[in-house]
């Protein structure tokens, strides 16, 4: 995860570029993305792959309750294993 500020988009929102994935996201999505990536890497004890990061970026575009549901499932799964 290598994030770089891109500026303000046409909707007046800050945009960030993940230079590793060459993907742009708005500030609100960046916050979800960083949190999910950090938590998952800590739980797994390793860095996420590019493919895994792409899926987390996709997931971070959903509403907060959907993201929280998946994060809870990941935490529960970690406890079971």
Written account of the structure:
- The protein is an alpha+beta fold and about 80 residues long.
- Helices cover about 55% and strands about 20% of the residues.
- The protein is built from three helices and three strands.
- The chain has helices at about 25-45, 50-60, 65-80, and strands at about 5-10, 15-20, 25.
- The protein has a three-stranded antiparallel sheet.
- The radius of gyration is 13 Å and the shape is globular.
- The two termini are about 25 Å apart.
- The model has no long low-confidence stretch (mean pLDDT about 90).
Q: Secondary-structure element order, as H and E?
A: EEEHHH
- Cα-to-Cα separation, first versus last residue: 26 Å
Radius of gyration over C-alpha positions, nearest whole angstrom: 13 Å
Structural class assignment: alpha+beta
Biggest sheet character: 3 strands, antiparallel
Give the fraction of residues assigned to helices. 55-70%
The low-confidence runs, each spanning 5 or more residues with pLDDT under 50, are none
Strand content: 15-25%
Total strand segments: 3
What is the average per-residue confidence, as pLDDT, rounded to a whole number?
A: 92
User: What is the number of helical segments per DSSP (H or I, 4+ residues)?
Assistant: 3
Main-sheet strand order equals 1-2-3
Shape: globular
């Amino acid at each position: 995860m290598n994030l770089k500020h891109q500026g303000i988009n046409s909707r007046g929102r800050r945009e960030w570029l993940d230079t590793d994935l060459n993907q742009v996201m708005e500030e609100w999505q960046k916050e979800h993305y960083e949190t999910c990536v950090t938590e998952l890497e800590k739980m797994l004890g390793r860095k996420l792959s590019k493919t895994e990061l792409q899926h987390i970026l996709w997931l971070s575009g959903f509403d907060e309750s959907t993201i929280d549901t998946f994060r809870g499932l990941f935490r529960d799964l970690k406890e079971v294993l």
